[in-house]
Write a structure and sequence with these properties.
This protein is an alpha/beta fold and 316 residues long. The chain folds into 2 domains: 2-230, Spore Coat Polysaccharide Biosynthesis Protein SpsA, Chain A (Alpha-Beta Complex); 233-312, no CATH class. 46% of the residues lie in helices and 18% in strands. Strands 1, 2, 3, 4, 5, 6, 7, 8 and 9 form a 9-stranded mixed β-sheet that branches. The longest helix has 25 residues, at 232-256.
């Protein structure tokens, strides 16, 4: 009876899965979600301007709620999902993510501290097999998180750098208290997939909430598997795209967050020094993995242009 009473005290959670024209991934994701051991949750599929109606059919087959966000853009889809949820916690998965059965339970545990507004979890590739060391490094590039819990707030030394550049969470595995969307403008629609600045929307969200005085907690036991079946060439292209987006996002921070301008410059300077000093090992794989030094340099130099393009096009 005590165990049943404790279950009833657990907060209602929603799992929001944003998708666009990837029915096979969505099917696998919903199958994994159906095996969650958490007792109080529902699933919401946000169809982000898909060209076919498969997502609606798949959501209905798995008993998931379904809404449409007609304008392409991951941030728009995530915001639409939050508005459509009446749960205490809103958790997000990518449509190609495969959560472990205890993923949501471990993610919810992070909210036991009432001052925690965001909880993130670990993202792992199913394996790190690859044709060579470069391929394996590229696969590991899409993993995230270590084995120790972390809590960050605005009193944490260097919190801005940790949240934006050193990794405390990524969008494939994160959850927010629903009330966060009542005091915060939501995900920046200039960021994320479907925009010139193709990423970093979750980092901007984390930064905004921590700056408002809230805590972010990383829960390493909340594990999501992220399949990585692509070829080395596909992974190289994705790595370069992430590199462009990262520099573009740093440019946004520099121009739009003057309080943290010095922190952005200091971190980028330290990164440059590390690259110069470490020309072997993983640093070499990083450059080889991207194809060659010219491509990585071109990707870095194009980042500021992506930011300018987002301003000129008036994404909002």
């Amino acid at each position: 009876m005590d165990g049943e009473a404790r279950k009833q005290d657990l907060p209602l959670s929603s799992i929001v899965i944003c998708t666009r024209d990837r029915p096979i991934h969505l099917e696998d994701c919903l199958a994994a979600v159906s095996r969650q051991d958490y007792p109080h949750f529902f699933v919401l599929v946000v169809d982000n301007a898909s060209r076919a109606d498969r997502a609606r059919e798949i959501a209905a087959r798995w008993g998931a709620r379904y809404v449409v966000e007609p304008t392409p853009g991951l941030s728009r889809a995530r915001n639409r999902g939050a508005v459509a949820c009446d749960s205490e916690v809103v958790a997000y998965l990518d449509d190609d993510s495969l959560p472990e059965p205890d993923w949501l339970s471990n993610l919810i545990e992070g909210f036991q501290d009432p001052s925690v507004m965001v909880v993130t979890g670990r993202v792992c590739a199913p394996d790190t097999k690859g044709e060579d060391a470069v391929h394996r490094w590229l696969i590991r590039h899409y993993e995230f998180g270590g084995g120790s819990p972390v809590v960050v707030d605005s009193n944490t030394p260097g919190w801005f750098e940790r949240v934006n550049f050193e990794g405390v969470g990524i969008g494939a595995n994160m959850a927010f208290r629903r009330r966060a969307f009542e005091e915060w403008e939501g995900f920046d629609t200039r960021l994320g997939s479907g925009t010139p600045l193709n990423g970093a929307e979750e980092l901007h969200a984390f930064t905004s909430l921590v700056a408002r005085g809230h805590k972010l907690a990383y829960a390493p036991r909340a594990v999501v598997r992220h399949p990585c079946r692509a070829t080395k060439q596909d992974l190289r292209a994705r790595y370069l795209a992430d590199l462009r987006a990262g520099v573009g996002y740093a440019t946004l921070l520099f121009f739009e967050e003057p309080r943290y301008r010095r922190a952005v410059l200091a971190f980028k300077l330290r990164s440059l020094i590390r690259r110069v000093r470490n020309s072997k090992g993983e640093a070499r794989w990083r450059e080889e993995g991207a194809g060659d030094y010219a491509r990585t340099l071109s990707a870095r130099l194009s980042g500021p242009w992506l930011y300018l393009r987002s301003r000129l096009k008036g994404f909002s």
